[in-house]
Amino acid sequence: MVPKVTAYTADISICSQICRLAVYEQGLRGVEHVNIDIEYEMENYDPWFVKIQPTMTVPVLVYNKKVVGDSRDILMFLQERHPEAGLYPKEHRDSIDSFIDNFYERFGLIGAFTFGNLATRGPTMQQFIKRGKREITIAKLKALMQHEYLRQHAEQKLAKLDQFDLLSWAMSQDLNVLDSKMSELLDQMDQQLADGRPLLMGETYSLADVVATAYCARIHFIKGLGLFSENVRRYWELVKSRQSFVGANVCSTWEDTLMAKQFAKFQTSSN
Q1: How does 148-162 read in b/e, with b if 16+ C-beta sit within 10 Å?
Q2: pTM for this structure?
Q3: What is the pLDDT of residue 271?
């Protein structure tokens, strides 16, 4: 029986890209993809979405009636149900798990790298970030307070915002340090690829490559090829050529993103 699957993702979200890549590489077809705007309209705070995902984060995968709301959990959930895709071979599981662990340990770092660099694009970009991540977010969370069954979730999120301002945090980052820290995982990839293997585990695309593809795409989105070694560049060209790269809407340049179109609209209205 073909499962009924809906993937709620945001185009630019690195974890969403991992989800979409996993869905595509697992061979799932007929999947309904719903984009959730988390940069401009902040649709992750709309009541209908909060009912599905109380943490108000993406990605979320609804597989038949099972809701899976974390990209790492989605990776493992799908491979358990579709082992025939061969993305988690037994002989490489320890190495795959280690690479995935190293990626998720850097999750906060990836956010700092992304928004720290975006904030350097000038006052209009800073205002764009502030509008979505603070002004619209707070307004929508206050609106959620009117729904008794969602009030607790909104209160918890508002309390966190009282303690954390994303734009101020982004502008405080040392970008050179971030480049160095982001390069650590690239260095691990370089070492694995140094023997000439095409992919991280050898000849076969694996869950490690799902994560690495999204990671490389994020670095390319911000820095282009500048942080890639020769081996990583070779790897990057290979994974970009896979059907899943286009099919999963992997965002590797600013122009690829919905955020770019939204920023252009915001920029025009601000002039």
Answers
A1: eebeebbeebeeeee
A2: 0.97
A3: 77
Q: Where are the domains of the chain?
A: 5-85, 92-269
What's CA 251's distance to the chain center, in Å? 10
Q: What is the pLDDT of residues 27-50, one digit of tens each?
A: 998 999 999 999 999 999 999 999
Residue pLDDT, tens place only, 193-235: 999 999 999 999 999 999 999 999 999 999 999 999 999 999 9
Whether 32 and 52 have beta carbons less than 8 Å apart is answered as: no
For residue 24, give every residue at least 6 positions away whose Cβ sits within 8 Å of its Cβ, in sequence order, or none: 243, 244, 247, 248
Q: 32 - beta bridge partners?
A: 6
For residue 5, list its beta bridge partners: 63
Q: Can you name the residues that pair with 7 across neighbouring β-strands? A: 33, 61
Q: What angle do CA 232, 235, 237 make, to 5 degrees?
A: 110
The domain 5-85 is placed in CATH, from the list 3.10.180.10, 3.40.30.10, 2.40.160.40, 3.40.50.720, at 3.40.30.10
Residue 25: the pLDDT is 97
Question: Low-confidence residues of the chain, pLDDT below 70?
Answer: none
